[in-house]
Amino acid sequence: MSLQSASNSPENQPEPKFAFSTITIHDCVLENGDSVPVVVEASPSFPARRYTDDYTDPPPPTVKTWAARPILLDGSSLDVSLMGLIGEGRIGMTYSARINSARDATGLDVTDSVPQEICLKFAKPPYVRSLAREAWFYEQLHKWQGISTAKCFGFFSATPVGTLVESLLPWKESKKVPRRRRYHPDDDTEYQLPMKDYLPDEAPDPLGLYSDEHGFHHDSPWKTWEHSAESPLLAVLALEKLGGHYFMPDKEPPQRVKGLRHVFQRSTTLLHLLISWFFGFIRKSLRAMVDDITQEGVYHNDITAFNILGVPEESRTLCPRHNCRHKWRLVDFDRADKIDPANCGPWELERAATQVDCIGELWRGFWGTVEE
After folding, report:
1. Residue 143 burial (CB < 10 Å; 0-12/13-18/19+)?
2. Going along the chain, which residue ranges are E strands?
3. How far apart are the first and last CA of the chain?
4. What are phi and psi of 232, to 5 degrees?
5. Looking at 80-84, 257-261, 308-312, which range is the least confident one?
6. How many other C-beta atoms can be found within 10 angstroms of the C-beta atom of residue 368?
7. At 11, is the pLDDT very low, low, confident or very high (cuts 50, 70, 90)?
8. In the predicted model, what is the mean pLDDT of residues 146-159?
9. How do residues 325-362 score in pLDDT, each as one tens digit?
10. Is 107 left (phi over 0), alpha (psi -120 to 50) or beta?
11. Could you give the CA distance from residue 132 to residue 86 in angstroms, rounded to a whole number?
12. Where are the domains of the chain?
């Protein structure tokens, strides 16, 4: 099945505010000292299976909007130049990119209406399905993009040929080897997984936690896709460029207040009140941001300081739910789960609601874990 086809079409999903059929990327491949442009085309995302842990009744069908968004094939195009490396994660490499030009479906120059820079997340070759899955979560959270989550401008792919495979900068600069995580930390059983890029909803599931009533996951071209070392696929997720990640423990504002302890030697009560106020104010804003995605039934599964990025003041958008402008946005949804909030049991809602409890908790890995 071609990756340019999607088996099911969603209903009542608005078009992205900023999307293109193709992206031409310069300075991504250097061959004999010369830059060779690479063109990637819009590709379908990979729907996750529905999570459920309420066994009292058979799970009702999921909504039609669970399907991947139809890919855009209107001829619109974006031309960018790769800039510096922002960071490397488990499944991909993230770069900043300068937008050179943008054209809509009619060929009209719309460069002035798009950001000057965006962020391009390149999948490491064996982990393309994870990136396609992350793209689906951004689609599901479309109304919170630019408010609580990063704006997503589309998911793209292409198959490089010849010497381009060896010259792709994101693949050459990759250094981290993704850690193979056990599904049951207290179980030493070795699970035989069908693919290296295993996904949460494709793990051994004896309790039947995941369902796929409409076949959106099963019928996706990504379901059976496998990485080929001879013909690897270049996959790119285009996102808005945000700022740095959330404070480390010693830099968080409440810790800065603690550093002024000598100023309040005669009033420890005042110090404690100030610390409590700072903690409450800062953490409350993060909890509100996570609460937004919870309303859509999304359970992030990896809420850490490194997946919470700062938003420049001029880019902050009013949150209609909390009537404020969030200073942070959540990213990295490749390990997320999703329930159907309109058709689920109380346990599922409770699980989603408790994810805000991860914020600021060292023992729950908010500032990372020993293993990388």
Report:
1. middle
2. 22-31, 34-42, 50-51, 77-88, 92-103, 117-123, 152-158, 210-211, 234-240, 298-299, 308-310, 318-319, 324-325, 328-330, 337-338
3. 35
4. -70, 155
5. 257-261
6. 12
7. very low
8. 95
9. 999 999 999 999 999 888 887 778 788 888 988 887 77
10. left
11. 20
12. 22-364
Per-residue pLDDT tens over the stretch 206-260:
778 898 888 999 999 999 999 998 889 999 999 999 999 988 877 776 544 444 4
DSSP 319: E
CA 330-171-299 angle, 5° bins:
25
Amino acid 353: pLDDT: 85
**DSSP category for residue 302:** -
Separation between Cα atoms, residue 144 and residue 137, nearest integer Å: 11
3-state SS class at 73? coil
Q: Can you tell me the distance from the alpha carbon of 158 to that of 164, in angstroms, rounded to the nearest whole number? A: 11
Quote the pTM value.
0.85
DSSP 116-165: SEEEEEEEPGGGHHHHHHHHHHHHHTGGGBTTTB--EEEEEEE---TTHH
Q: Which two tokens stand for residue 74?
A: 């209107």
Quick one: how far is CA 275 from the chain centroid? 32
Q: Which residue has the higher pLDDT, 175 or 49?
A: 49
- Which amino acid is residue 322, in one-letter code? H
237: which 2 tokens?
């997720």
Q: How does strand 210-211 pair with strand 50-51?
A: antiparallel
Q: Give one DSSP letter per residue of 210-236, joined into a string.
A: EE-TT-TTTTSTTSS----SSSPPEEE
